[in-house]
């Protein structure tokens, strides 16, 4: 009697473990680029979800190495910020690992404008300066909530995957931040550029109605981007 109860408990444990494993491993890999359209002829199908893997016996330490992140990015552009990515395109050893990094430099009052990363959450660390940062939640019952914080050197802030966020240098000195991202290829959608600067342009009637703007202003913005 005692033995059969024990056996039942062991079987139940095995069943629970099996269920847990199938929950953890049953899903397909997440998309590693915007899309990967199926293609039947395999000799012409040169892209995979992510990148091809190098033959392990040809792999060298250099494949996992990159230097130069001590050098400030050029912030002389219109917005006064520069993102230097270290993703799979820059560091091939990141392929399939689900992580990447970026350095972000800010001129005085420089802005990393509202944008989203479709494939990654971001954890931002401020090395130097002061940044006003924030993100907006998705459309929900309580609307689009804005979460903001003023960050100083040593502070860390998290931007959840896919949400619109920004970083603004509020001071008249430079700022430097580093970001860790939960994808080898996080992707960036800069809201203003994607909306007003798409190629070809979105029909201005769509933007006029969507943003409740004067059509002339929409056409002006489309020229600007
Ligand atoms: C690619 O296509 C060829 C010819 O149809 C086929 O023999 C081969 O098995 C295919 N390879 C893969 C990886 O699907
Ligand atoms: C977005 O558009 C502005 C204005 O044309 C331009 O300065 C900036 O480089 C663009 N940003 C990206 C990420 O393409």
Explain what this protein looks like in three dimensions.
Helix content is 21%, strand content 26%. It has 225 residues and is α+β, with helices and mostly antiparallel strands. It has a single domain, classed as Jelly Rolls (Sandwich). The strands form two sheets. It has a five-stranded antiparallel sheet with strand order 1-2-9-4-7, with no helix packed on it. The longest helix is centred in the N-terminal third of the chain and has 24 residues, at 2-25. It starts with a helix and ends with a helix. The mean pLDDT is 89. It binds 2-acetamido-2-deoxy-beta-D-glucopyranose (2 copies).
Number of helices: 4
Give the full name of the CATH homologous superfamily.
Answer: Jelly Rolls
CATH topology, which one?
Jelly Rolls
> Could you name the CATH class?
Mainly Beta
Distance between the termini: 78 Å
* CATH architecture classification: Sandwich
What count of structural domains?
Answer: 1
Which percent range describes the beta-strand content?
25-35%
Largest beta-sheet details: 5 strands, antiparallel
Structural class: alpha+beta
Fraction of residues in H or I helices: 10-25%
Return residue spans where pLDDT drops below 50 for at least 5 consecutive residues: none
Overall 3D shape: globular
Bound small molecules, deduplicated: 2-acetamido-2-deoxy-beta-D-glucopyranose
Order of helices and strands: HEEEEEEEEEEHHH
């Amino acid at each position: 009697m005692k033995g059969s109860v024990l056996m039942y408990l062991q079987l139940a444990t095995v069943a629970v473990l099996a269920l847990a494993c199938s929950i953890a491993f049953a899903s397909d890999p997440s998309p590693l680029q915007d899309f990967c359209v199926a293609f039947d002829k395999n000799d012409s199908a040169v892209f995979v979800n992510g990148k091809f893997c190098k033959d392990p016996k040809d792999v060298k330490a250099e494949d996992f190495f990159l230097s130069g992140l001590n050098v400030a990015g050029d912030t002389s552009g219109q917005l006064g910020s520069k993102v230097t990515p270290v993703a799979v395109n820059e560091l091939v050893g990141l392929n399939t690992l689900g992580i990447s990094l970026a350095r972000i430099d800010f001129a005085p009052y420089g802005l990393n404008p509202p944008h989203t990363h479709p494939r990654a959450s971001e954890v931002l660390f401020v090395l130097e300066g002061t940044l006003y940062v924030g993100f907006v939640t998705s459309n929900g019952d309580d609307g689009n909530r804005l979460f903001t914080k003023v960050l100083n050197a040593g502070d860390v802030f998290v931007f959840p995957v896919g949400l619109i966020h920004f970083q603004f240098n509020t001071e008249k000195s430079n700022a430097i931040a580093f970001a860790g991202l939960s994808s080898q290829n996080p992707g960036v959608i800069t809201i203003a550029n994607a909306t007003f600067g798409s190629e070809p342009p979105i029909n201005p009637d769509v933007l006029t109605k969507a943003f409740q703007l004067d059509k002339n202003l929409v056409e002006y913005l489309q020229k600007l981007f």
